[in-house]
Design goal:
This protein has about 325 residues and is of the alpha/beta class. About 25% of the residues lie in helices and about 25% in strands. Strand 2, helix 1 and strand 3 form a beta-alpha-beta unit.
């Protein structure tokens, strides 16, 4: 049900900070608070805004836009979603159609904003314990799911965020999960579209984007990770002065998502408390279903986004393996 106008408050206003240098340059947008319980991106953005406003940080060229809280209703309620996940089905409502829910109304405001930019940094955090990491899109391709031609630029942005790990393969595995839930039947394009978020939208508009998972929701270091990522991206794009004596970014571990496992029943339980990027070997037990059957790892790899509180019928955890992709190599 759509949130009524009467139910909205002043705190549901979408606050947007925009800066434009006299010298032309890249058009860069940073989002925080796409999920209401993820506050580190908001804190990082507000720190950068304060430094731009008081002159400690100076924009040399281009245009910079920052949205500290992209989902005000979810933030006001202190939970991941207002009415649904804003980072799914991220596309404007069809012409003449009323937005289906609160998040659709927000999407209708954010999409035209993203349309005016070419680079996106979307700042998030996650529920389980674990280190910060970046998520990137596909390699250059001309396929139908997510055609793309700016993988090198996107990879460079991920590298310069200096996280120990970078993860690829989100939309492919989301689509595979949809097909899995349909029992192998032809996939409904609308269901796959529900897996498309801010970065997928940016790529569909000819730009590129990286999601930075800054750490666990309550990690006191996460706001600093978000802030430093904003500065690193601005330096890479030549929008602020370079850092004197800065070393080249270290080469991160690159992982590829290969599967997603759903939770079927509220009695389904993990065999232990997993953290994102916990390694497992082939044959290791991961979880026990309500009927007593044990889920074992089918290969060596890593647990990603384990969610012990997942609702039945939703994603329980993802599985990743080492990737052969090299983000430092330009395409030939």
């Amino acid at each position: 049900m759509t949130v009524s106008t009467a139910a909205l408050t002043a705190s549901d206003t979408l606050r947007i900070h925009a800066y434009a240098a006299i010298e032309p340059g890249p058009k860069f947008i940073v989002l925080g608070g796409v999920h209401g319980d993820e506050t580190c991106g908001t804190a990082g953005i507000e720190r950068a805004v304060a430094e731009l406003d008081d002159g400690r940080l100076r924009l040399l060229r281009g245009q910079l836009t920052m949205v500290p809280v992209a989902n005000p209703l979810a933030r006001r309620r202190g939970r991941r979603e207002g009415e649904r996940n804003l980072n799914r089905l991220f596309e404007p409502s069809a012409p003449g159609m009323e937005p289906a829910d609160y998040e659709a109304r927000i999407t209708n405001l954010l999409c035209p904003l993203l349309d005016r930019h070419e680079v996106l940094l979307d700042l998030h955090s996650f529920q389980s314990a674990g280190e910060a990491f970046a998520m990137i899109g596909p390699r250059d391709n001309t396929g139908t799911l997510e055609p793309f031609a700016r993988a090198f630029e996107e990879g460079q942005l991920a590298l310069h965020l200096r996280t120990p790990r970078v993860v690829e393969g989100w939309l492919d595995i989301y689509a595979a999960g949809v097909a899995q839930r349909a029992g192998g039947k032809p996939v409904d394009p609308v269901q796959v579209a529900f897996g498309k978020g801010t970065n997928e939208y940016m790529r569909s508009r000819g730009g590129y984007g990286v999601t930075l998972e800054c750490g666990q929701h309550e990690d006191p270091a996460a706001p600093g990770v978000a802030y430093e990522a904003i500065l690193s991206a601005l330096r890479l794009l030549g929008m602020i002065a370079p850092e004197p004596g800065a070393l080249p970014p270290p080469k991160p571990s690159l992982l590829r998502l290969v599967s997603v496992v759903d939770r079927f029943h509220e009695e389904d339980q993990f065999v232990r408390e997993w953290a994102t990027f916990d390694p497992v070997s082939r044959g290791d037990p991961i979880a026990v279903r309500e009927d007593g059957s044990v889920l074992h790892s089918e290969r060596d790899g890593f647990i990603v986004f384990p969610n012990a509180e997942a609702l039945p019928g939703t994603e329980w955890f993802y599985f990743a393996v080492n990737s052969d992709r090299d983000l430092t190599q330009q395409p030939r």
